[in-house]
Amino acid sequence: MFITERLLTLADIPYRDFTAKLIPTIDKECIIGVRTPAIRSLAKELLKQQPKEAMVFLEKLPHYYYEENNLHAFIIAQIKDFEKTMQYTTQFLPYIDNWATCDIFAPKIFLKYPEEVLSYVQQWLKSNETYTVRYAIGVLLSNYLDEHFKTTHLDWVAAIRSEEYYINMMIAWYFATALAKQYKTTIPYIEAKTLTPFVQNKTIQKARESLRISAETKEYLLQFKLPN
Questions:
Q1: N or C: which end of the chain has fewer CB within 10 A?
Q2: Is the pTM of this model over 0.70?
Q3: CB atoms within 10 A of CB 89
Q4: Residue 1 scores a pLDDT above 80
């Protein structure tokens, strides 16, 4: 497909080697080595100049290259129709196979439909797919810790029990960010040691690394570390 050929022309071998070290769950042969701004620009170009081809590309799952998945995510992120965006998102999530693609995937239109998106988030949290669950937690982190925040969201994430490293790391990111943005509501979960030892300790570590949390709070959090 000509879209894949376009990506191949943008290959940067040293960058491919760098990327492969960051994403150990992907075979190096499946990484072209295209920088994210170039992929994002290509997505905009395709939607503007060749929208039919872009939509055909969204139906070509699974992809072979890591960058094809990233391009797929960026194309969906720019669709302006909510129903179409959610249709393509639902189709795509089971094919995400790494943390990086998962974390860059952020459809702009989600912000305009917080209640509707939340119902999908609840479904995704129950998925058996590692990156679908991680994605759901990431959406809660990015879109629901400010004006749309509810305590029940903390309950949803705290209830997750997984052996998957990339799920547990996102849970820790979520709670560390929640401590920075919704401290009074979040700190009881840490004080009660609600989370698994790994997640509890990673949450505390990330909170202590945050510039948005006071030195006093960082010191206070230390007493809630758990033995692994």
A1: C
A2: yes
A3: 20
A4: no
